[in-house]
Amino acid sequence: MSSDAVGTTSLKSSAHVKAAGWGRGLSTLLRITRMNLRHPGQAALAIGSTIAAVILQVLIPQLLGDAIDQTKVVLGGGATGAAAEQALWVPALLLLAASTLRGLFTMAQNYFAEAVGHHVAYELRLAFYDKVQRLSFSFHDRVHSGDLITLGILDLDGVRMYFSTALVRLLLLTMLIGIGGYRMISTDTLLGLMALSFVPFVAWRSSITQVKLRAIWLNLQERLSVLGRVMEENLAGIRVVRAFSAQAYEMAKFDRASKTALEVAHQQVDVYVPNTSAMTLAFFLAMGLVLWLGCNKVIVGQISVGTLTMFLAFMTILQMPVRQIGLMVNGFARAYTCGSRLFGLLDQDNTIRDVPTARPLEIGEGTLRFDNVSFAYPGTGNRAVLENVTFCARRGETIAIVGPPGSGKSTIAHLIPRFYDVTGGAIMLDGQDIRGVTLATLRKAVAVVQQDAFLFTTTIENNIAYGDPWAKEQRIERASESAQLHNYILDLPAGYKTVVGERGTSLSGGQRQRLTIARTMMLRPSVVIFDDSTAAIDAATEQRIRLAIRRFAKDRVTIIIAHRLSSLKHADRILFVDNGKIVERGTHQELLAKQGRYKALHDLQLRPGDDIVTKYRGAP
């Protein structure tokens, strides 16, 4: 598979952003601006420091011009030695004071502008992480985790830099040109217009550059997302890569993704550098015209040397901001593209959420009921995974679900805690439709031990107590005893304080599954679901765990999904599911007596044969 194929759905395509146009772009930038202004103290200090720095910056050419004219007057008046030196002290000190204050205010501008950006980044980081925690399973089914990591790091950083690199810089340049231009035009109209003649050209090129960079930035972010997906997938499956000696293949895949991102980065440079160079050239041409015309005016006595010096000094001051116009335009373009992607996630509608009238779940008898439940996964063309599934389970009962792979067993488990919403029928807990109760109380009442035994990189104790971090040690130990893990933990050098590796890789598959079972037994749910959670455990240990689960199940509904029928014999009722429908139901003995699909599966596990396989699969 090529690197371009890695992952699932992109968060926002280039075509979508291009179609959004200027209106959407302005809306995104205004939204980021409002976020920055939510820190009025630091934003005001940054803006105030910018204004003060600009005023001092514009004042310096005037002071310099006055100093030159005064020097000419002093020297022309015949003053020498101490008298001439004394006459020059005042303008020199004024220039030094203005330059020093300008430097201090510029430093304050940079500090507070960066502070505003980092505060916004902090808020966005929390909002992003909170949104990722709340988005439904169907969203995470579509979007690759590598995309989300890129979004939460690179795109968020693009938004963070907007205030300092774009907004404050725009204010700085606008004020420099506005105030300085007014002073120059009011001093000499023709010379002032020549000094500002580069501004229309720069504005035109900046607009063109922004449009181009906006699309390129989005494309680059998408390429970097692909790169992140490739890296994340490789790190997650590094043992498979090593086991199959596929390092060369993975390196080639990563190289292709890197080259694609590099090509887009080159496009960005190809747009940015020529346009910035053209804008700088326009500035120097304007400066040359000012120098030529100004010298002629000095010769004929229309302006003084100090006035010409003021014009040239002002244009020299403008040189650096003009060169930074490209960076400013880049900042706006990046903020737009990154903000569009980031806000696209933050504004994502969560399909699984509390309805406005949701009430806390109230558990009485603890009865679970499936009433003609049908379900189709989003984006699958409404192809039903479950059809008209109906059953009831009361407190103290154990319901076992069995069937061939892909029959819908795990889907039933995922619907009970509302990982997905049913598309037909209803799931009831004590007569309450689970769509009408709060998610927090529902998921406190329903616990799922999933097939994927995921562990966090922390101590064994913390992994077991994840659902109740303040649980006492005795309760944690009892849960691990029920999961047949306690003795193993005691043999470890650090006992329950032992830190498991990333994803629990320092434990065997069976040990990881037992730890997740212990994590569930720590809680007191009304419904507990074991979704093939003992597949990696040996038969003897599984039998001991089953005995513990039976004691655990006395005052709650227990649903067990498994392939080994030895795990299900004790169930009060067994449901055989195929193609999303319950085709057989009854106790172990009743189903054996029916001589149907369950009996075929039973015989297949005892004595495999082609004729039994055919019967199990439902063929005539």
Automatic annotation (TrEMBL):
Kindly give the InterPro entries that the UniProt entry links to this protein.
Answer: AAA+_ATPase, ABC1_TM_dom, ABC1_TM_sf, ABC_transporter-like_ATP-bd, ABC_transporter-like_CS, P-loop_NTPase, Type_1_exporter
Cellular location of this protein?
Answer: Cell membrane
How is the protein disposed in the membrane? Multi-pass membrane protein
Q: Does the keyword Transport apply?
A: yes
- Give any Pfam family that matches: ABC_membrane
User: What keywords would UniProt list here?
Assistant: ATP-binding, Cell membrane, Membrane, Nucleotide-binding, Sugar transport, Transmembrane, Transmembrane helix, Transport
The cellular component terms of Gene Ontology attached to this UniProt record, alphabetical and capped at eight, are: plasma membrane
- What range(s) does the ABC transporter domain occupy? 368-604
CDD domains reported in the protein's UniProt record: ABC_6TM_YknU_like
State one molecular function term (GO). Answer: ABC-type oligopeptide transporter activity
Domain (ABC transmembrane type-1) ranges: 44-334
Instruction: Report the superkingdom from the record.
Output: Bacteria
So where does this one cross the membrane? 43-64, 166-185, 272-293, 299-318
Q: Which PANTHER family match?
A: ATP-BINDING CASSETTE SUB-FAMILY B MEMBER 10, MITOCHONDRIAL, ATP-DEPENDENT PERMEASE MDL1, MITOCHONDRIAL
Family, per entry: Belongs to the ABC transporter superfamily.
The entry's protein name is ABC-type multidrug transport system, ATPase and permease component
